[in-house]
Amino acid sequence: MTQDDLLALLGRGLRHLTSAAHPMLTADSDLHSSGIDSLQLLELVTWTEKELDIRLPDEKLYTVTDVRGLCELISAELASRA
């Protein structure tokens, strides 16, 4: 799954979970300044885990501050399952 695929998936998840308008996600988007609060981020991660049938390690999620970091974490988890 490419980074563009993951960006599209995360954008779809964000639209699915919230009714609020959010700016277009890019790899460089800061998760918190994009208008995503901590509860929405948790919901987005949970939704993504279900969509991709993965489990992201909590200890690594604490270090993620931008969309690129989240995409890299998801990619690493997908690669470990291949």
TrEMBL record:
Keywords of the record: Phosphopantetheine, Phosphoprotein
UniProt key word Phosphoprotein: yes
Molecular-function GO term, any one: phosphopantetheine binding
PROSITE patterns: CARRIER
Domain of life: Bacteria
Domain Carrier: 1-78
Descriptive protein name: Carrier domain-containing protein
Organism: Nocardia ninae NBRC 108245
